[in-house]
Batch of 2 targets.
Target 1
Amino acid sequence: MERVSAPAPAASGQASGPLLAVADLTLRFGGVTALDGVGFTVAPGELLAVIGPNGAGKTSVFNCLNGVYRPQRGTIELGGQSLIGRAPAAIAGLGVARTFQNLGLFPQLSLVDNLMLGRHHLMRTGFLAGMAWWGRAKREEIEHRAAVEDVIELLELEPYRRTPAGLLPYGVAKRAELGRALAMEPRLLLLDEPVAGMNVEETEDMARYLVQARRELGLAMILVEHDMRLVMDLADRVVALDFGVVIAAGTPDEVRDDPRVVEAYLGCGA
Ligand SMILES: Nc1ncnc2c1ncn2[C@@H]1O[C@H](COP(=O)(O)OP(=O)(O)OP(=O)(O)O)[C@@H](O)[C@H]1O
């Protein structure tokens, strides 16, 4: 898997500091305060889970991190570079990839082509340049295909490589969605409910692939997930939100046992 390896920590610009630092994040929609002074950090290689009942602000955090929403207040720094005000494509270019709850795959394209599209922002040779610089374009193509093959191998997607994404079984499509994000060679991966709608066996498979991806690629991840078992099994640290405010942060056990967290979940009927 060397070709898809994450950059060394020094490439983040802060060898010893956090990879991601979020402070005082505040986001309002008219009269609704979706996020109110949210702050957390993610260390290189760390898996941070963000939990909270429905409407707590988890998706809003992701949408701020990848540039879909612009917060009214606060800072977001990746390796010391501010992400605020940058377009989603620019943030992807800086190494932030996201998986989507409702799958971000093109249903007509084969799994391999979906993964190749995940690498689009890494491609230096455009179509015309490709015609003029055939040798370089060809080399680039070979490199990109090799990187995609590494992801296919890591996630054991070989049997589905030519299958149109729209025809993949649900669990495999979620894995392909993870593959699309990994093919971007991110420094930080945002996982939006990767096991939503999965049965127990599919959930266990996904957990195994996430552990494998972390071990092989060493990349940092933020996991938004309602499945508490997965959170407890995978997370290094957990941040709990309720009504847009951080109500607890710490190890999975600390956060699970925090009375404010228990109350937030009981209050929402979960
Ligand atoms: N585009 C929007 N316009 C108006 N209000 C919004 C918008 N997006 C989110 N909100 C509001 O912000 C708050 C936080 O929503 P968000 O989707 O971030 O919560 P969540 O924790 O992801 O919830 P869920 O677990 O149900 O996905 C909610 O009150 C929601 O109604």
Target 2
Amino acid sequence: MNADAQHEAVYGAPPEMLAVRDDLTPMLSQYADLCEAHDDALVLFQVGDFYEAFCGAAEAVARTCEVTLTKREDSTGTWPMAGIPIDNAAGYLERLLDAGYRVALADQVEDASEASGLVDRAVTQLITPGTVVDEELLEAGRATYLGAVARDGDDYGLAVVDVSTGECLVTGADRALALEELERLAPAELVVGPNCDLPSLSFDPMETPFDPDAFDPETARETLSRYVPRPEAVVESTVERRAVGALLAYAEYAQGDSKLEYVTRVTRFDPREFLQLDATAIRSLELFDSRSARAGSTLFSVLDETACALGRRRLEAWLRRPLVEQGAIEARLDAVGALADDALSRADLRDHLSSVYDLERLVARISRERASARDLRSLKTTLDRVPEIRETLDGVESGLLADLRDSLDELDGVRDHIDRAIVADPPQEITEGGVIAEGYDAELDDLRGTAEDGRAWVSNLEAHEQERTGIDSLEVGYNQVHGYYIEVTNPNLDRVPDDYVRRQTLKNSERFYTPELKEREDEILRAAERADSLEYDLFCEVRADVATESARIQAVADALADLDVLRTLADVAVANDYARPVFHDGDATDGASNDGTTAGIEIDGGRHPVVERTQDEFVPNPTSLPQGGVALITGPNMSGKSTYMRQVALVCILAQMGSFVPADAARLPVVDRVFTRVGASDDIAGGQSTFMREMSELTEILHNATDDSLVLLDEVGRGTSTTDGLAIARAATEFVHDEVGAMTLFATHYHDLTDTADERDGVFNLHFTATQTDGEVTFLHSVAEGPSSSSYGVEVAHLAGVPATVVERARSLVEADDEGSNTKPGQRSAHTGPDNDAQPTADARPDDDIQSPQDGPESPQDGTLAAYVDGLENGHRTADDDHETEPTVDAVARDVADELREADLVDTTPLEALNLLSDLKRRLE
Ligand SMILES: Nc1ncnc2c1ncn2[C@@H]1O[C@H](COP(=O)(O)OP(=O)(O)OP(=O)(O)O)[C@@H](O)[C@H]1O
């Protein structure tokens, strides 16, 4: 989409114009200059009411915006041209952005009527996915980030800014963590520093080339010092400083090389201060985006009862970044609890917050000098709510709510100022008067008085002149071109007095003025014009004055956002019957845990917050997952395994973001990370090798999970042959149990895997079942202890109405397989086949010996999964695994390789070569 080749003809001055540079008309010459100066964007050039583009850029605009490609002809040539109307440019700009273009708006910066010759034009704004500030191009409830990444050896710095609100975040981490954070923040546009070497990302940011010098440590310090007094106090390393410095430098450049006044806080965070959710987990738990077409089928949409855009963005941030500090989590839970218990305050808060405007964006517009008088009034309306909100919070018992109430600065000065200065219902335009309230400025009142007196004199003039001249039909009127006039019809012209001066002749009448009328007119116009321009100046002064309070207003915005989220979480908890989770510190004596293991996740009557909304009757299920425990979950397709696993993860995430949870009760540890690996068939990776993806996600988990992590494995190993799949699944289970110690839920169709529970204390089986009632298959959706019956799949096939002959044949195959098989892990056995008989997939392939990629001489002999699988297959890992290894692909491959090595290609005819190849291939297969 963002093809450079495509942009070559679009960005920069059109070569055909440069060829006749000296002969171009002044306007096109100005266009070419601006294109040259902004050769990293498509220049849209204001000509009156249109933005125009020429040559290659015109073709791109015409194609992308579906507008007509016309041409401009002059003495130097014929130039392809396309234009978009300025009045509704937003929709067109959006299309250009979506098509991957960066756009520079070259506006007329002087009044065309005052210009002597060519109107001055300048690029006033660069519009790119990460720098858009126009309301129409922004999603109200979502932060749009611009990001920058810098690298120093193994350390990465990452910074993002939301240019529409001024929120600026910076962090530093090793490569893996930084990439994870980058995925989580998913900036719309990314400035990548030298040598960063980023892999392909799961989202699709516009990568922006920018001056590498901006990443220089000293330059970055200088940039950052424009925003914070002591850069060293904000960031923790040079690489963080380089990232945030370059980021701000680019944002300034995009906003016309000026400081971003509304960036009043640069906040550093450590990813480890939050529950880490990588992009895979965010996606597979469907926190924000759902793979299902059903509306409202994400966790965010279930929670989103926010009353204002501030709250909506904050809710998203909290859900993306649940906490790990128990005190902070409890503070949020206390606040949610207090509001949940107080329906009246909750309703009042909702009411007040729903009339709160998007303060963060308002303040940014005010600082950027783009706010209108209406924006200032919106600010006032919002601030008017603050005392009421404070009052509502007076009676509510919670430390956090009390703190938030205290930080709600009433900003009386700002409110009064706006109230005194700006009329109650100002016009959208700020240059045409009617904006400043009466009594605010004496000079303005005088000027308005003069204009008013003049108009009053004119309105009396008609009667006065009718009486003086005796012409009853005489009229006094006004038009834009000629100003005030006295109109006399032709039959009365003989009675016109001598002081009437002819102004205009019409068909049936003449228009006149008198010297006094002219004088009054000049007076009125002078006063009105002067008043308009004074109003504009006064308005700018008020706006600038309000801008000096940006930081205080942003602090109010911050508190309102938090309040809206806490109120929302309370609403959701009450409406959906959620319970307050209790956190324990992992001590078994602290309760709940049964058999001496350390207490882990204990949930009574847990529900999936999203699925329960779409289901007539959702069956709640308990969870008891000790710390370090691995639950192997079996059961037929559609029985509820994935839903169950996800609901456990969602309960943990909700709890750590400070929300009540969909359960009767929950006792939880604070988890440090949630990992998910969902099965190949569920994977949206599409054409890529899903197995490779599955394995790299598994590797990621096994490397990074800790004993405080929650791991969901859904059908791991399904992407390859049954033998390898089962071996990998077993190895992964053992590894995660023996080496990692993470709380793990593993849904599997490999029935053989359930044996692992006999070998390891911390591994246990759970299962889901189905029954048949009146010929209908019913999934009970309730979890039970122990493994699912191994032949269950065939029974489900039967229940599902698969023809009897097929079911019988399947049964006899299972029995035959049972009799003739080993039960060694890694080999097909009676139960080895995935028990998801209702779903004939790749799993149903006959047994084969495709070697797992981890095998072979290069296998690392360390504590990795690869080594583990290797060990298993070679019989060294498990004490009771004393079977001979089946003839493996190793031996065949070695033979084939030897034969290839020995083949004398010089003396081989093409036919012989083909035969050899075919033979080797057959043996390998
Ligand atoms: N506890 C429950 N109560 C009611 N309905 C449920 C419950 N759990 C799941 N369901 C319903 O069953 C459907 C299938 O559930 P789920 O995808 O979890 O099954 P599964 O066992 O993981 O299937 P597969 O093995 O094919 O992935 C869900 O979409 C939901 O409609």
